[in-house]
Amino acid sequence: MGRLVRFTSPRTAEVVDFPDQPAGAGEVRLQTLYSGISAGTELTAYRGSNPYLNSEWDAERRLFVPGDSTHSYPLDGWGYEEVGRVESVGDDVDPDLVGRLVWGTWGHRSSVVRPVGWVQERLLPEGSTPIAGIFAKIGAIALNAILDADIHVGETVAVFGAGVPGQIVAQLARLNGAEVIVVDPVAARRELAERLGASLTLDPTTDEVAERVRALTGNRGADVVIEMSGSYQALQEAVRTVAYSSRVVAGGFFQGGATAVRLGEEYHHNRVAIICSQISGVAPVLQHRWDELRMSRTVLTLERDGRLPLRDLITDIVAAEDAPAAFEMLDSAPEKALQVVLDYGLDR
After folding, report:
1. Cis peptide upstream of residue 309 (ω within 30 degrees of 0)
2. 3-state secondary structure of 242
3. Domain ranges in the chain with CATH number 3.40.50.720
4. What percent of the chain has pLDDT over 70?
């Protein structure tokens, strides 16, 4: 039997058995080494605030509509930051794949079976540290926000939210030639952002962010602001911080109503564009060249080459059996950790 993380009800997680599958013809069986917890999307499922739990997603019309929810408890194997090793292969599959490291999305579970073509597209770059593979998708989410931001060399970029995606966004913006300002209320996250190259960090609980950024830019404001926290208060301050006729990229997963966002003030008078960045798609002008697979591969290659220090974001590595305690900690005291990783005890 395998083991997976199950959300049985809001704010209740447990680790349960599930039947292991062998690899069939054209398939590959992966044993999970590590699985990263997303403190944004996954916590919406853990808490019960995810819109898929409270309404129905009409995929044809791309609308949330009243009625039955798309998902309901129990929720098995949520998660999208996995890395594993090929344990066995089915018929008609190259046996040389056995032992190779693979990144992907298969949720918090000890093993999974995937088609060989899917696996071959997600082999971890040679020379990578195995645990780095957990950053493939969250790194793609961050890179997608950078592509949506359309950053130019020499511009000032403000990043709101210094959780894992915000930290990656800040590093990528700097690689794009920007002067980067990071905004977050947690001191340890601001300190890490500075160590990883941010020019300045601000505390939104004590600093007048929009005023400070304008003072630093000759009253112009940030050329682009990227909001990764999912906080409506942060989105409102991002609108106040960005320059006239410029863009705010909204990459956080917002929950509930946007009562803090005042569209009649700076948004209206400064002709601000709010651009949604979401991993289901790429900016239309880039869709002929970029997709999620390329974004993930790019991030992992930058990490392997030492240009994107992602492993510095890992604060906690815990046994996979201790997942319930990890989710409880992230829910009740998120400032205590950044990237939490579940260890399946096989990377020895």
Report:
1. no
2. strand
3. 151-282
4. 99
Enumerate the CATH 3.90.180.10 domain ranges in the chain, comma separated. 2-137+291-343
Q: Which CATH architecture has domain 151-282?
A: 3-Layer(aba) Sandwich (3.40)
Mean pLDDT, all residues of the chain: 96
> 348 pLDDT exceeds 70?
no
Q: In CATH, what is the architecture of 2-137+291-343? A: Alpha-Beta Complex (3.90)
Interhelix angle for 136-149 vs 164-175, to 10°? Answer: 50
**pLDDT tens-place string over residues 180-230:** 999 999 999 999 999 999 999 999 999 999 999 999 999 999 999 999 999
Question: Would you call 19 helix, strand, or coil by DSSP?
Answer: coil
The pTM of the whole model exceeds 0.85: yes
- Measure the CA–CA gap between 207 and 189, rounded to whole angstroms: 16
Judged on CB neighbours under 10 Å (0-12, 13-18, 19+), 20 is middle
- Residue whose structure tokens are 């697979």: 293
Q: What is the DSSP letter of 49?
A: -
CB atoms within 10 A of CB 255: 15
Phi first, then psi, for residue 18 (nearest 5°) are: -145, 155
pLDDT for res 346: 82
